[in-house]
Design brief:
7 helices; 3 domains; 30% strand; alpha+beta; Pseudouridine synthase
Length: 375
């Protein structure tokens, strides 16, 4: 990236043609996304309270906070709950997540605060990686441990049989979403219809599974896999379909997301560490900015373009800028624009003209220059 480029130069890192997608981060778009997972559960009596207000933090007016927090979501917490907890801890005006994780799942839940919500589509469209365990011998109506058993088998697959099956689940495949999913059928969520006892006819759709490997089968009753897949893939459906083909049935009994777009396990922060940081910040011993990743972290696959302060002023007003001079790039497509090393806008570049599409107003709490060790 050209985040440190001086304001008097125009960088020429332009190459990819990435279209700006609609920012609708409340829609289901992730592997095992179900919208409101609790609403789609036939039996769910888990406690709903998670997180706590840090010591010394009083309820007060919300503030502007801009950046990403990649929460290492614990099992038992919904994605909506996680967003509410972080919004409270940071006392932030706006927050949203970039891809639902079921309560059963743990791992990376990228949460956008403030102006970072404008970059959510770029994370949602990125690759996801999961480590998951399939328990053999039972199929369940939710395709995971939280559902009702619908089929059983005493058979167990050999590792050779499973290995031989993997090519059928890599590349572009047709996948039928689970009955308990957030897909809409004539205006109603599939999980609502399933909860009411209706069998919904969900149509297969193409999904991309880039890689699927076995990582452990020390227990004949279950197998641990790792999968890297594209947007809209249901890991639960992989378990269901493998079990049916192998003739032994199967369902997800453990699921962890280890990659979500540009964010991997190294970026994740457990909730306990965030709460401890909030307590330290309240007593003047630290800053919540240390837990934030910069807004532009979500734009890793988009080329950066540095502009002068005069051009930045025009872009900030929503005006197009004609780039002149020998440093003007010849490429076209979406770029993210910086001035003085600071993110300014997402823009479309073509024929030497820069047209702003999304302008960022980064006033308030923003990410530190680098996350401190131990945060």
């Amino acid at each position: 990236m050209t985040g440190n480029a001086p304001p008097t130069t125009i960088g020429a890192r332009v190459g990819d043609n990435n279209e700006l997608s609609e920012n609708n981060f409340s829609a289901p778009a992730d592997a095992d996304s179900r919208g409101n997972p609790h609403a789609g559960r036939p039996h769910d009596d888990r406690p709903r309270q998670h997180g706590k207000r840090p010591q010394g933090q009083q309820k007060r007016d919300r503030r502007d906070v801009h950046g990403w927090v990649v929460l290492d979501k614990p099992v038992g917490m919904t994605s909506t709950q996680a967003v509410a907890v972080l919004k409270r801890l940071f006392n932030a005006r706006r927050a949203g997540h970039a891809g639902t994780l079921d309560p059963l799942a743990s791992g990376g839940l990228p949460i956008a605060l403030g102006e970072a919500t404008k970059t959510v589509p770029y994370v949602m469209d990125g690759r996801k990686r999961y480590r998951f365990t399939v328990c053999w011998g039972e199929e369940r109506d939710t395709d995971d441990t939280e559902g009702r058993v619908t089929q059983t088998s005493a058979d167990r697959p050999t590792i050779e049989a499973i290995q031989a099956l993997l090519p059928q689940f890599t590349g572009t495949i047709e996948q039928t979403p689970p009955q308990y999913s957030a897909i809409k059928i004539q205006g109603e969520r599939a999980y609502d219809l399933a909860r009411d006892g209706e069998t919904v006819a969900l149509q297969p759709r193409p999904v991309e599974i880039h890689e699927l490997t076995i990582t452990d089968q020390s227990d004949r009753n279950k197998t641990v896999f790792e999968a890297e897949c594209g947007k809209g893939t249901y890991v639960r459906a992989i378990a269901r379909d493998m079990g049916r083909i192998l003739g032994c049935y199967g369902h997800i009994c453990e699921l962890r997301r280890t990659l979500c777009g540009p964010f991997d396990e190294a970026d994740m922060i457990p909730l306990e560490q965030l709460e401890a940081l909030c307590d330290r910040a309240a007593s003047g011993e630290g800053s919540l900015a240390d837990a934030l990743l910069p807004v532009e972290t979500a734009l890793d696959d988009i080329p950066a373009l540095a502009v002068t302060r005069a051009d930045a002023a025009r872009l900030h007003r929503g005006q197009a800028v004609l780039l002149r001079g020998r440093d003007a790039p010849n490429s076209s497509g979406t770029v993210y624009v910086t001035v003085g090393g600071r993110l300014l806008a997402l823009a479309e570049l073509g024929n030497g003209e820069l047209i702003p599409k999304r302008v960022f107003n980064l006033t308030g709490l923003v990410a530190s220059s680098g996350r401190k060790e131990g945060v």
